[in-house]
C-alpha cells in the first residue's frame, strides 16, 4: 500500500529483473474454466491489484509506466503493458495462461516474473480480473505503447536469480474468506500491503505472508519521490504504530490519501479509492488481530516552520512526495500553469477526481482558502522554471 502499498516494490522489481537473467521454467497445463462474472467488479479489482504498477495516469490506460520507487541498485524498472495489444501487451494470452501467470509468476513463454505472484488469490477474484483484462473496456483497449525498456544492474540480476517459482495451487477451489478478519488478511496479502510494510523486501514470504520478517511492522527502506531513502511506517496496533487510529482514520488514509495528522500520504503509497467500506473494515479488524510490533520508525519531518511561502506550503501538504522538489517526478505537474487558469487549478487541487485523477488526494477540506493563491503561484513558478523545452 504508497506509504501504508503495494504496489510490493521488491517483488515488483525483483520479478521483472528475473526476465533479464533469461531464466525459464516449464509452464504446466492447468484445468482453468472461465465463468460468467461482472466486468464492473473486474475493473474495480484490476485497479486495486494491478493499477498501482500498470495503470498510466497520463495515457489513462494499462499501458505500463516506470516504477519510480524501485530500488536504484536493481536498475531502472518498467511495469509492462497489459492492454489487449497482441504484441506490446497481453492480447495473445489465453485465459488459462493469465491465470497461471498471476498465481505463479510464470509467463506463457516460461519466464519467471515474481512481481505477478498472487498464489492466494481466490478463484472468483482471479476469474473476474481475467475477464476484465479480456474485455472491451477503454482502459485495456489495445495499445502498442512501449512503457520503457528495463535496464538492470549486475547486483539486481544476481539478487533476483535466487528467486524461485511457485507451484500452481492444487486445491480444486480457492474461495473468498467469509470471516471478517480472514477477509482482511486476504486483502493485505493480495493488495501486497505487507510487501512495503514488513522489515525488508528480501525477507518476504510470498506463499505465507505472515511468516515475513517484521510482518506489517514497517521499517522497509524505499525510494521517495525526491529519490531519497524513506522507511515505511509500522501498521501494527502498537504505540509505535497505529494503536491510536480509528477505523475512520484508516479509511481516510486508504481511500482519500490523507493521514491521521491531516497530511497527504507520501509516495509510493497509492490511493485505494476503489475499496469498499466493508473491505476497509475487514483490513482494520485484521490489523488489530496481528501481534503488535515495537518498531518506532524514524520519519523525517517534512513541515517547514514558515507556512507563508509557496515552497513551505508545497512541502507542508506533501506535494513534493509525489511531484518531487522540481514538480516533475514521478508525476509531472509543470504543465499545469499552461493548461489551467488559477481558479481551475484551485478546483483541481480541491477535487482531483472531478478531473479524472483518481490517485491524487482531495485537499478541499485540508488547505485553507487564503493559502491557495500563494501555493498556486509557486506551482506556476515550478512550471515556468522546470517545464520541458
Automatic annotation (TrEMBL):
Q: Its domain of life? A: Bacteria
List each coiled-coil range: none
Q: Residue ranges of the Cytochrome c domain? A: 37-137, 179-291, 305-383
Q: What Pfam families does the annotation carry? A: Cytochrom_C, Cytochrome_CBB3
Keyword field contains rRNA processing: no
UniProt keyword NAD, yes or no = no
Ordered alphabetically, the record's keywords are:
Heme, Iron, Metal-binding
PROSITE patterns with a match to the protein in the record:
CYTC, PROKAR_LIPOPROTEIN
**PANTHER family xrefs:** ALCOHOL DEHYDROGENASE CYTOCHROME C SUBUNIT, BLL4482 PROTEIN-RELATED
- Name by which UniProt lists this protein: C-type cytochrome
Q: State the organism named in the record.
A: Xanthocytophaga flava
